[in-house]
Task: inverse folding
């Protein structure tokens, strides 16, 4: 992966994942201090995502590097119709690596075909979000371990790119994946096809009830109001997939509850006070994981 | 033999005969190999010709042009049973079947409106060919049915 791109979690082998996570753990423990002095990371966010952008910015600055930011889409040339291929070729002249968030699927792959600097996909439409997946895996490894894992992934599985990315990456490990969602928000059939092709252990459920008690990790995602034409239908579904302290009464004591954030009301605030809640820690893990990733993708061979 | 029925379409002197095309796909065959007559080739098309192997088949004859294997392999997506005859001086010089290519480029457009290739980017569409369909290299969308509708014209 050194000097390469990170476009999808599908490209990550188990060894790739482990090298990023090990490196991130060493950085978090203060055992290594990577340096990016004099290097610039180009931030191209064609879609707003303050958290992901700040996380990359922090990761770069903590290593002594800096960022150049294209700014918001409104004020950039994007609206004037410049192609993505042109934009990235211009930014390549300034930056040592490019982080790209774009509303269209495959945007990062296209960008990587036009530039020689590393391209990191920070989310492409309904496609992939591999750096989120790496920080998710880091969090899972810290709290439950990545082998002999029983994980429930719940909420909007249809449109959730973080879910798809995570599911692909988990096929590299000994994980039993349970997908819990309303029928209308099930995993895309293509993703299920891929997971089966990878030999993954995958089951789909409409309710958390039957499966909660055996889970090591419950990964909750937000069900978005705009997916439903009818407000009542949304309310009904959202209510059924809401996690409260009562819901968790049947869970194992060591269940880890995760969420890619931001949340709206799919996890009740009272859950924050329990030992299950790991989502803020998960968000914090984004910095060491992205530091490790930048070091592996941008670092010198002879260090 | 179905060869008798080929008489319904005039013989060519030099060029390519694409035979055993699935009925109704002849015009898609021309589109997929990029023949629209603008280069002056004379093209004859037989549709719904009776055939022993396919019951009904289409047949396409292109005078004055020998199609390369790369050109015809993309036909496997819509005409998997096609046979390609290269004709020189009215004689069949070589005869072969189409092979499935690993990828096809700039032939099909992606049906996923959320795919970057549907934007105004200077990029050729690219699909990996699966056993039973094609998959967009950029967005991952799998298409199993309706491939002829995706042919770029
Ligand atoms: Zn596509």
Result:
């Amino acid at each position: 992966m050194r000097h390469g791109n990170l476009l999808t979690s599908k490209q990550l082998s188990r060894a790739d994942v482990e090298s990023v996570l090990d490196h991130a753990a060493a950085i978090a423990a203060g055992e290594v201090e990577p340096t990016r002095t004099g290097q610039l990371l180009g931030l191209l966010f064609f879609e707003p995502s303050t958290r992901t952008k700040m996380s990359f910015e922090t990761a770069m600055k903590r290593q002594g590097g800096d960022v150049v930011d294209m700014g918001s889409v409104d004020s950039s040339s994007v609206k004037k119709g410049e192609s993505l291929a042109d934009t990235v070729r211009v930014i390549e002249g300034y930056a040592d690596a490019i982080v790209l968030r774009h509303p269209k699927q495959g945007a990062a792959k296209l960008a990587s075909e036009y530039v020689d600097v590393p391209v990191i996909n920070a989310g492409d439409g309904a496609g992939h979000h591999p750096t989120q997946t790496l920080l998710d895996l880091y969090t899972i490894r810290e709290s439950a371990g990545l082998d002999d894992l029983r994980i429930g992934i719940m909420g909007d599985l249809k449109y959730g790119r973080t879910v798809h990315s995570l599911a692909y990456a988990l096929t590299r490990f000994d994980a039993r994946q349970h997908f819990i969602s309303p029928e209308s928000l099930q995993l895309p059939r293509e993703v299920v096809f891929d997971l089966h092709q990878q030999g993954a252990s995958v089951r789909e459920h409409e309710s958390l009830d039957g499966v909660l008690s055996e889970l090591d990790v419950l990964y909750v995602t937000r069900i978005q109001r705009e997916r439903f034409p009818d407000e009542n239908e949304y309310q009904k579904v959202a209510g059924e997939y809401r996690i409260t302290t009562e819901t968790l009464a049947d869970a194992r004591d060591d269940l880890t509850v995760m969420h890619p954030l931001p949340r709206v009301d799919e996890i009740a605030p009272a859950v924050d006070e329990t030992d299950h809640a790991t989502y803020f820690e998960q968000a914090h893990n984004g910095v060491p994981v992205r530091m490790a990733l930048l070091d592996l993708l941008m670092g010198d061979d002879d260090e | 033999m179905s060869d008798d029925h080929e008489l319904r379409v005039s013989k060519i002197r030099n060029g390519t005969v694409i035979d055993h095309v699935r009925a109704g796909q002849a015009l898609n065959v021309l589109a997929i190999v990029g023949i629209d007559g603008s280069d002056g080739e004379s093209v004859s098309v037989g549709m719904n010709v009776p055939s022993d192997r396919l019951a009904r088949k289409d047949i396409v004859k292109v005078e004055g042009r020998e199609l390369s294997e790369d050109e015809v392999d993309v036909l496997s997506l819509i005409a998997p049973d096609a046979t390609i005859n290269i004709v020189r001086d009215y004689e069949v010089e070589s005869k072969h079947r189409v092979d499935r290519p690993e990828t096809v480029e700039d032939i099909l457009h992606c049906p996923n409106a959320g795919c970057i290739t549907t934007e105004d980017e200077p990029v050729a569409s690219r699909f990996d060919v699966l056993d039973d369909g094609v998959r967009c290299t950029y967005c991952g969308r799998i298409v199993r049915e309706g491939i002829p509708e995706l042919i770029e014209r």
User: Anything to note?
Assistant: Residues 110 and 123 of chain B are 12 Å apart (CA to CA). The longest strand of chain B covers residues 42-51. Chain B has two helices and nine strands. The two ends of chain B are 34 Å apart (CA to CA).
